[in-house]
Amino acid sequence: MDIDVRNEYPAPVDAVITLFADPEFVAARAAALDHTHLEILECGRSGAGYRIHYRREVPVTVPAFAAKVLTPRTTVEQDDTWTEHDAERGTWSGTWRVTARGLPIDLGGAITLAPGDPAAVHHITGSLDVRIPLIGKRLHGFLLADALRTIAAEHEYGVATLERRS
């Protein structure tokens, strides 16, 4: 497992899951993170859960050895699905998946959102698979660092948004 991040939010679980599935929030967060060409494919309630499915162009750290394979901006598609796991406790669980257009790279895993101390804990786990001959193993570290920076920046933006709204 490459990713194991626990982010705390200063709001109840219901407020956080509603924020995650708010198309205006998704758009504002993308803009704040310099993600461009956002296209929201689905964002909101889906059956008994939520689905946040969108495409965007993101900045990527491109080491010199990978300049022929990667560009400084890459189009990625992300699909998060949430299902209420335990209605009594207010716990949500789901999956997340990120694919890069035209590149043999897969990133994804499991997500949970549960009551915590002080208010809600978003737990993200996952793996990065880079299937590029010769440079894939070397590139893995750069792409993983970008993914972790994005997760941290998204969390920071979410916390700030919740604090502004309270």
Could you characterize the architecture of this molecule?
There is one protein chain. The protein has helices at 13-20, 23-32, 136-165; strands at residues 3-9, 36-46, 49-59, 73-86, 91-100, 105-115, 120-130. By secondary structure, the chain is α+β, with helices and mostly antiparallel strands.
Question: Might you state the CATH topology name?
Answer: Alpha-D-Glucose-1,6-Bisphosphate, Chain A, domain 4
Number of helices: 3
Specify the CATH class: Alpha Beta
Number of domains: 1
Low-confidence stretches: none
User: Mean pLDDT across all residues, rounded?
Assistant: 93
- What general outline do the C-alpha atoms trace? globular
Between the first and last Cα atoms, what is the distance in angstroms?
35 Å
Strand content: over 45%
> Percent helix among the residues?
25-40%
Biggest sheet record: 7 strands, antiparallel
CATH superfamily: START domain
Give the neighbour order of strands across the main sheet: 1-7-6-5-4-3-2
